[in-house]
């Protein structure tokens, strides 16, 4: 008996990049104290008011099938939020609710890519991007960015790889780098997308966590609303990672196609989860700012810590839950540095190489532990890095 080749094609073989994370979990299971700065999980849980709404809805009987694009009232609330935040006219017909942002990413590529087509994405990238593209039977093509320019994608680099492509996936604010794409960057991307007749898939799950600059959705640029699919989620904005509630904002034809796909895959999202999401959205921008505030504070802690060093610098981070540190002065790869760090200091960080080749020699630091513990961990990390430089 032989399994279908699509899963092996999807995984691509080799490492999944999460070895340090697995090592940290194993050490904790052995009873060791590890500062885990690997994963983008809030250090607070979902607000009790949201959980109360979820519980009340489930107790009221909203536990049946919910086939389709999502509850009309939730789609309307998402559309109103998107229109208010971006200035782009958006109706519920432009919204399909999905089981988290990852499901939206998967669906977006499934309905826009054919087997054998090329799907573009920017390197560094969130770990699931290549496999999500390959899951459609398409060919994933990375577009390298450079740390010297803050990992802002260059239009010429995108255009050079666009022959035969159908889609381009971007992510701003970016995971892992924290880069917030500038208006000039987005204008250049939009020009290539229009000229090459591409679908643009824009992952904007960190759009409420902006620490420097402004978030601009490419959907707001001239001629882009009809070719842009925006991934959104309550995971980061409302600390609801485990609830798995996200959405795709797109032209109506895309929403219809994604709804058809959902009928044959997820069968929709539980009604009580959608009601919790509706409650979460009703809490307003102030609530979202409170969820993001710890990461603003910790970003400043990181900036202050590494300002004391003349050897190590942070990549300018404008948003999100992460900062990225250039450790090339140690002479180590990101992988080598992270491996030595967890063994010597019991501090776990993600190697830049886990997110592609462009971030080689960097590490990603998740700002997901309490301020005092975070400051202490960074001080120890910096001292460790300085010692490695002497040894190298």
From TrEMBL:
Q: Which Gene3D superfamilies match?
A: Type I PLP-dependent aspartate aminotransferase-like (Major domain)
Q: What cofactors are annotated for this protein?
A: pyridoxal 5'-phosphate
* EC number assigned by the record: 2.6.1.-
List the catalysed reactions: L-aspartate + 2-oxoglutarate = oxaloacetate + L-glutamate
The organism's place on the tree of life at top rank? Bacteria
Q: If you read the UniProt record, what top EC class would you report for this enzyme, in one word?
A: transferase
| Presence of keyword Metal-binding | no
CDD domains with a match to the protein in the record: AAT_like
- InterPro entries linked: Aminotransferase_I/II_large, AspAT/PAT-like, NHTrfase_class1_PyrdxlP-BS, PyrdxlP-dep_Trfase, PyrdxlP-dep_Trfase_major
What are the Aminotransferase class I/classII large domain coordinates in residue numbering? 34-381
User: Which key words are in the record?
Assistant: Aminotransferase, Pyridoxal phosphate, Transferase
Name one molecular function that GO assigns to this entry. Answer: transaminase activity
Homology family = Belongs to the class-I pyridoxal-phosphate-dependent aminotransferase family.
Q: What is this protein called?
A: Aminotransferase
């Amino acid at each position: 008996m032989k399994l279908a080749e699509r899963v092996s094609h999807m995984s691509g073989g080799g490492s999944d990049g999460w070895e340090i994370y697995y090592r940290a979990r194993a050490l904790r299971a052995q009873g060791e104290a590890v500062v885990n700065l690997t994963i983008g999980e809030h250090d607070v849980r979902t607000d009790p008011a949201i959980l109360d709404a979820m519980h009340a809805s489930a107790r009221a009987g909203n536990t049946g099938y919910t086939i389709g694009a999502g509850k009309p009232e939730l789609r309307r609330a998402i559309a109103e939020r998107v229109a208010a935040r971006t200035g782009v006219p958006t109706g519920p017909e432009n919204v399909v609710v999905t089981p988290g942002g990852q499901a939206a990413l998967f669906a977006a590529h499934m309905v826009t890519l054919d087997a054998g087509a090329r799907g573009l994405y920017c390197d560094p990238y969130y770990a699931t991007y290549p496999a999500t593209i390959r899951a459609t039977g398409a060919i994933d093509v990375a577009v390298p960015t450079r740390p010297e320019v803050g990992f802002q994608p260059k239009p010429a680099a995108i255009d050079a790889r666009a022959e035969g492509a159908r889609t381009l996936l971007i992510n701003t604010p970016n995971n892992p780098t924290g880069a917030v794409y500038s208006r000039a960057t987005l204008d250049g991307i939009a020009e290539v997308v229009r000229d090459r007749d591409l679908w643009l898939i824009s992952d904007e799950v960190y759009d409420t966590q902006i620490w420097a600059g402004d978030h601009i959705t490419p959907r707001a640029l001239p001629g882009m609303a009809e070719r842009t699919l925006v991934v959104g989620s309550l995971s980061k904005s409302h600390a609801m990672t485990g609830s798995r509630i996200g959405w795709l904002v797109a032209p109506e034809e895309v929403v219809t196609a994604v709804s058809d796909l959902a009928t044959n895959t997820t069968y929709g999202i539980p009604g009580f989860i959608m009601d919790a999401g509706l409650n979460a959205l009703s809490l307003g921008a102030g609530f979202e700012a409170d969820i993001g505030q710890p990461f603003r504070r910790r970003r400043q802690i990181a900036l202050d810590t590494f300002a004391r060093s003349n050897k190590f610098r942070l990549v300018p981070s404008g948003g999100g839950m992460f900062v990225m540190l250039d450790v090339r002065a140690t002479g180590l790869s990101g992988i080598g540095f992270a491996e030595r760090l967890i063994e010597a200091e019991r501090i776990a960080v993600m190697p830049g190489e886990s997110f592609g080749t462009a971030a080689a020699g960097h590490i990603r630091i998740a700002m997901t532990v309490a301020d005092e513990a975070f400051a202490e961990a960074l001080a120890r990390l910096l001292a460790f890095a300085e010692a490695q430089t002497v040894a190298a």
